[in-house]
Every structure is written in structure tokens, then in C-alpha cells.
Amino acid sequence: MTKNSSIAIIITAAGSSTRMGGSTKKEYLPYKNGTVLSNSAKTFLNTCLNNYKLTDFIVTCPKGGINECQKILEQDKELTQLLKACAVDIQIVEGAQTRQASVFNALKAVKGNPSIVLIHDGARPFITAQLITDGISTAFEYGASVPGVTPTDTQKRIDENGFIVEHLVRSGLAAVQTPQCFNYEMLLAAHKKASDDNYEYTDDTEIWGKYYSEKPVKVYTGDVNNIKITYPSDLQTLETK
Fold this sequence. Notes:
- The chain is an alpha/beta fold.
- Helix content is 35%, strand content 22%.
- Strands 1, 4, 5, 6, 7, 10, 11 and 12 form an eight-stranded mixed beta sheet that branches. Strands 2-3 form a two-stranded antiparallel ribbon. The protein has a two-stranded antiparallel sheet with strand order 8-9.
- Helix 1 runs parallel beside helix 3, helix 4 crosses helix 6 (184-197) and helix 6 (184-197) packs across helix 7 (204-211).
């Protein structure tokens, strides 16, 4: 990996935020000098500036929501300045009914020729430069990477009736986060196969694992603070960080 390594970034914000409630999408909630979404974007841009060649910066949004998303992002003047410094524009792509289909839309919209693509939840505004650079370097080495943390609660597997059937060892488990980082061409090919197979996967690491079982995703050390804003109670975290 070199300083001029080519990177594409996809930030997903096409969900409906139904679990959050209220009238504002969680990615559009105010945070610091912008929004949850714009602050996620700024961390990636600051990290890539002078470190990587950024070929594409793509944000997914709900169907019919391109103008609203564009307006939300343009209101953050720090983001606008960073985009100029990185010599890149944000391309907003309409999502689909599922996250998988939304990411596939974004992958197909990539115009450059990146080596690595990073896929990040727009509702994770506490992402750090360390997680981003670790993810990129790990993906270059292994082909695919994801940050993960060991669960703090004891984990059990239960059956369809709610009875425990297996006691899992926490040290062998990981709660994965984003950014999930991949060889771009390989992930695009895997998404095409997944679409043709008409099968729904939980995330991009599962899609990768399905079609590249001989090249498993490498889990690197995540950050317990890299939470995803999901429920109303999570808004307290925005107020304290």
C-alpha cells in the first residue's frame, strides 16, 4: 500500500430510521457543526486527505431523496471545504428496498478505478481516523477487513422456542462494525452474483464470505465508541461527544 493508493468511499444513508422515531432521519440529525451524516463524511475526507487517492465519494439516500440529502450535506461548510481540498464531489445515489441492494447501486455508480472500497454506516458519526487507516491497510493485505469488538455480555444460541441450545465463548465472537473494507472489483463481482442468486445477506462481509470462502474477511480491532445511532436513547451520546 502506498500513499497514492486509490480508495472509494460509500456511506449508506438510505434507511427509513423507523426505530428512531420522529420526523428527521437519524443521519440528518444535528451534530457538532453539521449533521450525523456530514460528520461521518468529514472524518473520512480528513483521513484520506494527503494519504490516499480518493476516486469516488458516494452517499446513498432514500428513493426520491437526492435533493434533500444534497441540501443537508451542503449546509456543512467544513465538509464543502474538505471536498475541494480532496478534489472530489459527493455523488448521491438512490437506495433500494434493502441495504444490500442500496450498496449494489452505489458500487455500480463508482466511476474511478479504486483498489479498495470502504462501506460505512452514515449513522456512525464517531468513526475515527485510526479505524479507517487500519481498515484500509488490513484490506490491502487480506482482501477484506472489518472492525470488531468482543461482546461484553455472555452469548447464547437459542432455538425457535427460546430455549438455550448452545453456550458460546465470547473470545471467539466479534460484534462487527463499519467501515467494512474490500477489494473493489472482487466485491462488485460478489454483489452481482448475490443479485443473480436472489438471496439476501446480512451485510457485505457475508456476501464476500459466500463467494470467496478461500479468502475470509480479516477482523481487526474495533472501537466500542464506534456505535450506530439507532434508538432515541442514543441521542444522549450525541449530546455528550
